Amino acid sequence: PTKIYWDKKVSQYLVTISNLKSQIEIYKENDLKHLRVNMFVNPDFASIVESNLTLLEKEIEIIEVEIYRIQHYYENIDDQTESLEIKSLSK
């Protein structure tokens, strides 16, 4: 695959991540705020839901950082290859 192919993949993944973040925010703003005051929901369960959402957001951010790291790596592969060639020639 070419750089263009990987750029498209990165773009697709970043759009998906952005959509997931937005969906979580919308859920938190619209649905989660009523969870604590709902008489049918145990407050302890509301805390569990909030905690799991926070963990999910952190995991999504970790994936986003990893995507950027991979993108940086493949965009700079030539520099890395040259560095390896220089090291092998100097031996």
- The geometry reads as elongated
Q: Helix amount, in percent?
A: over 70%
Rg: 21 Å
Number of helices: 3
Overall mean pLDDT stands at 86
Distance between the termini: 32 Å
Low-confidence stretches: none
Number of strands: 0
Instruction: Give the amount of beta strand, in percent.
Output: under 5%
Structural class: mainly alpha
Largest sheet geometry? none
In N-to-C order, the SSE pattern is: HHH
Brief synopsis:
The chain is mainly alpha-helical and 91 residues long. The protein has 3 helices and no strands.
Q: Care to describe what's here?
A:
By secondary structure, this protein is an all-alpha fold. Helices cover 87% and strands 0% of the residues. It contains 3 helices and no strands. The chain has helices at residues 3-35, 43-75, 77-89. Helix 1 (3-35) packs antiparallel against helix 2. The protein is elongated and about 70 Å long. It starts with a helix and ends with a helix. The mean pLDDT is 86.
